[in-house]
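Side project, low priority. Logging it here so it doesn't get lost.
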Amino acid sequence: MFHERPHAARADLVSRTEPSRAEQAFAAGQLGIRSERRGSDHVVALSGELDLATAQGAESELRAAEATDAAQIILDLADLDFIDSTGLQLIIAADARCRAGGPRLRLLPGPPQVQRIFEITATTDILPFAK
């Protein structure tokens, strides 16, 4: 049998001010972006977490780099701690855009936990990783 809680108890649950564990985890993700021109190349270096919460900033920076006359755009993943499917999709889309005008994108590999998503999805041979 279902028993409804008293209205006061429900109001107490709704009015809590502390964030839930999920909200804390979502807010914890941060992405550092360093973007600079090096001769004819434009380097975009990412650090921290590339995920749903942070992808928009990386997307904006990559599009800005693509809009320049840089011969090559280098996406440096060496300092990333984490990447999810949103980050993977962002990189695949950037590669597709860059290929339209010739192969301009080059990826510098991340640490093992980051490279793992590329291995699992069989994109290590498709995406332009530096050897």
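Brief comment: The radius of gyration is 20 Å.
Revisit when time allows.
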